[in-house]
Design brief:
The structure holds 3 protein chains of 3 kinds. Chain A is of the alpha+beta class. Chain A has one domain. In chain A, 28% of the residues lie in helices and 21% in strands. Chain A has 10 helices and 12 strands. In chain A, strands 3-2-6-7-8-9-1-10 form an 8-stranded mixed β-sheet. A 4-stranded antiparallel β-sheet of chain A has the order 5-4-12-11, with no helix packed on it. In chain A, helix 2 packs across helix 3 and helix 5 packs across helix 10. Chain B has 3 domains: 94 residues, Translation factors (Elongation Factor Tu (Ef-tu), domain 3, Beta Barrel); 131 residues, Rossmann fold; 42 residues, no CATH class. In chain B, a hairpin with a 2-residue loop joins strand 13 and strand 14. Chain C folds into 2 domains: 131 residues, no CATH class; 110 residues, no CATH class. Chain C has a 5-stranded mixed β-sheet with strand order 2-1-3-4-5. The N and C termini of chain C lie far apart (61 Å). By secondary structure, chain C is of the alpha/beta class. The chains are: A alpha+beta, B alpha/beta, C alpha/beta. Chains in contact: A-B, A-C, B-C. At the A-B interface, strand 4, strand 5, helix 2, strand 11 and strand 12 of A face strand 13 of B.
Amino acid sequence: MTRILLRDKLDNCVARWRKAGLTVIGPVKKETFSSYAAVENAAELDLSMIMPDRSIKGLFFPQTEPMLHYTIKKQALDIKDFTPPPEKRIIFGARPCDASGMAIDDPLFGWDYKDNFWFQRRNETVIVTIACTKADDFCMCTSLKLAPDSTKGSDVMLRPLQNNRGWLVEELTDRGRDAFNEIADLLQDGSEPEASIAVVPEKFDLDACVTWLQKTENFESTFWKEISMRCIGCASCTFLCPTCHCFDFQDEGDTYSGIRRKNWDSCSFALFTMHTSGHNPRATQSARWRQRIMHKFNYFPGKFNVNSCSGCGRCSRQCPVDMGITETLQAISTLQP
Amino acid sequence: MTENIQTAQQNIYKPAIMKIVARHDEAPGVRTMKLEFQNPAEHELFKQNYRTGMFGLYGVYGEGESTFCVASPETRNEYIEFTFRQSGRVTTALANSDIGDLITFRGPYGNRFPIEKFYGKNLIFVSGGIALPPTRSVIWSCLDQREKFGKITIVYGARTVADLVYKHELEEWERRDDIDLVLTVDPGGESPDWKHRVGFVPTVLEQAAPSPDNCIAVICGPPIMIKFTLISLKKLGFDEPNVYTTLENRMKCGVGKCGRCNVGSIYVCKEGPVFTAAEVSRMPQGDL
Amino acid sequence: MTIQETYKTRAKELLSSGRVKMVVGYKAGSTPDRRRPHFIRTPEEADRLILDSACIANLSGYLITEGLLSDEKSVGIFLKPDGVRSLNILAAESQLNIEQIVVLGFDVNNNEITALKGEKAEDFSTLIESLKEHVPQTPGNPLLERIEAMNAKERFAFWEAEFSRCIKCYACRQACPMCYCRRCIVDCNQPQWVNTSSHTLGNFEWNIVRAFHLSGRCVGCGNCDRACPVNIPLRLINAKMAHEVLGAFDHFAGMSQTQEPVLASFKKDDSETFIL
């Protein structure tokens, strides 16, 4: 039996979820900037944009977050564990690429040592994804073997109906089913014609790229220097990326009390790998860009059996010098393996 | 791979509190500290998990954490010793810490030296400068069960005589007749009363010419020393799988999350820091 | 011949005569309205050169790419007047030898592109002087006017909201030709001058530190503003500082390669209103 959520019921849904104690989060557009943000009613949601400027990542892995509080007294050191305050959340209107990104990072945060800062938020959050009916020049999910209606990482997938009437509800996980049982009476049975899903042309042949990347001799190829010549070494691409997960620890406070924080960090920065001795394994920007590409499409899949890229295209869309993964992989797929 | 390793805390980034019980100045700017656990449960977990070769993150609150190997061997796990050179924010704070002060330790992390594979074999240890600590923990692991190994040779060099670390232990090793100790300093680094060799470690190693037959080599040192020592060992006929080394990449988390120790498909903090020369040669050399 | 074709020919001449080893210009980007930096080393590569009103990025920062000028060979570069001004500052602050730079000057106004005469930075000094004379008295930017009309508390709230989006990707710094420090103050940790965390305080610290480091140095090229992935109107901060510096010290950044940095020099008639 298929169920339908009509758009005019959405405001009721938001109210009902909020009443049930869930924080409702969705794509919100402010004057010059868009992101996934908490809303009080459906009118605040902007479900028409291609995707928010910022990815969903920060909701699970904030740009800065306390790990520990410490107090130093005479001959005593007090450490208080920080755990994120429990918060049940529902993200309504996530993009399939953003939802996939979270599933891609699960094995990383879970292998051997489990990062509970990530998993607590993962477990407490229902991701309701809306399949894309439009895309722009930078979207590349199909090149990553995903699609504008991929269900990877989603708890519920909503397939848009024609004429903007609402969505076909596809519950994928228990978490998703629970959240939609909460609003069961606002759904209706039946079927309606679905809107057509966005067409995202394939931009490169991923398999050919991976073959090239895996060839040892290509690590030293002059290609890397050429492609990254204009890279200015900022972290815009890595910070906007839904799957880039590197971080740093920083203590802030004084010798008596303070906080240890986990902050986003980036392989684009020269300091990232710099040894105390001054030796830097990745001393040039081209070595750093090579690492980013290799990590996403060669090393990470080798380890976790999944590409560390969901094809959202933010890296290219917002690069200050018009670089990005798309251009690099397009160039690689034209090279001789 | 998905089986979670037990830690004392739910928060994998929460360190254990350690008391500094002894400290010793090794060389200008280089100091060894001996630490004791304050929490018996954490100590118990350390004893269960620690094997020679593993490392930890040593921290001073308000400043941060720094990565060093555990310099004491698995055969002596009542305490932790580590040796560091004062050079950055955290090591300066460590250097300013005194006996009785509380600092933190997170670990033990990483892989280990497969010491049981060395049983019945001759061993040659080669190290340079401040890289003796990781070698030292293997050396003591072997010396504490000396009968299980063949001939043991130690080649150790530093820039100058003053820069040699663990001087008291070097004297002890020199006195023992079941160890061949070869000490050297770089040309110009000798003192008037220096009785040992003068020359770079790889050269001295070639002169010492240990036989590769039934022999395992363990080398630790700055990247440039490792590079030339590997060439020397190859000349002497050592096979790459019989040569072990440690990689000392910059790390923050120690548990395979933060991304910075990544070289090729390897996360040094999880799959290292101990590698055979064969494994190192398969890594992208430009990223080392 | 269009300006683009004229300059294409000029770039080819410069390269084939050996006068320069490279020309830094623009080429087509990933969408029709985008231009990306183009490093031209052969006359053939000059064929892909594009010069039109979409070429607004200030490319001068690429001149201090490590090793680019160390062989003492010359490099040609497409610059608008703001780019020439930042080139002057880089020379004044001893970051490069201006004799090695051949300027291919152009300007874009109201979507119209014009060629500028000259090839050395000093050839543009009359133009830059006239820019200084014609600095408008009012901001001329609706948002800046709105901010000017706010009281201190409202202004603080405005910037707090803007900076709350900052993710400390340092795209502003990396895109800025004036931010050339090998080790930025935020990367120094003994002591930790600036909080590296990207929270309210850390974001304020970073953006205020940057505003001060650019006072009297910012040429208003807008690279930071365009680079910011979360669209903080960074240019307004620097424009305000430039305005203050002009009023207080009659200093217009990048007038010449010998102009002293305003915050690192003292003149007897400097206003001392801040000394109580």
